[in-house]
Specification:
A hairpin with a 6-residue loop joins strand 2 and strand 3. This protein has 185 residues and is of the alpha+beta class. The chain is globular, with a radius of gyration of 20 Å.
Length: 185
């Protein structure tokens, strides 16, 4: 299993096929491989087509960029952290790989309330940070290949997987497309 858009960190077809073959060697005959990836087809191939489904985190900014700017999205909408106290967002800088595939460098920013005085009670600290007094910002860097459906399915076949299928979030209930394939019997 490789979920949460892990595979697109690899930039070349050769690296992706090598990773997929390595995963295949870990499976029993007819064993199931499951991957999840962002729906890059909706982001890079159909600029200007507002009818394509997008993940909820990208929907607003992506639709605006495609409709009005006719560009790839510049990042994500801000979102609230899992604990409800901080925020995050991503900025994307798009470029072409030597193969011609789309890719982007991302900067993920995480904003968190900070308490400097250890004598402040938790309730007081919460009230203080809700007023926006002191916040910290962290920046995390990375890079993704915009691994579109046709390329991923072809690379899975090249790596020796059978019965490869692309399952939509509507089918699986998972927020990203899930791709499955089977090791040879």
């Amino acid at each position: 299993m490789a979920f949460d858009n892990a595979l697109p960190h690899l930039m070349t077809d050769a690296d992706i096929v090598m990773a997929l073959r390595s995963m295949r060697t870990c499976l029993v005959p007819s064993g199931l491989l499951m991957l999840s990836v962002r729906d890059y087809d909706a982001l890079v191939k159909y600029v200007g087509n507002a009818s394509l489904p997008l993940s909820s985190a990208l929907a607003h900014v992506s639709t605006l960029c495609r409709l009005f700017l006719r560009e790839k999205p510049p990042g994500t909408m801000p979102y609230r952290s899992a604990n409800g106290k901080g925020y995050g967002f991503q900025v994307w800088d798009w470029f072409k790989l030597p193969s011609g595939a789309d890719a982007y460098k991302f900067q993920m920013f995480v904003l968190s309330p900070e308490v400097h005085d250890s004598s402040i009670s938790a309730a007081a600290a919460s009230a203080t940070t809700e007023q926006g007094d002191v916040w910290t910002a962290q920046r995390h860097l990375g890079m993704y290949r915009a691994l579109v459906k046709a390329d991923l399915l072809a690379l899975l076949s090249k790596a020796g997987f059978d019965g490869v299928q692309w399952l939509t979030p509507e089918t699986t209930g998972f927020y990203q497309p899930v791709v499955v394939g089977f090791a040879p019997p």
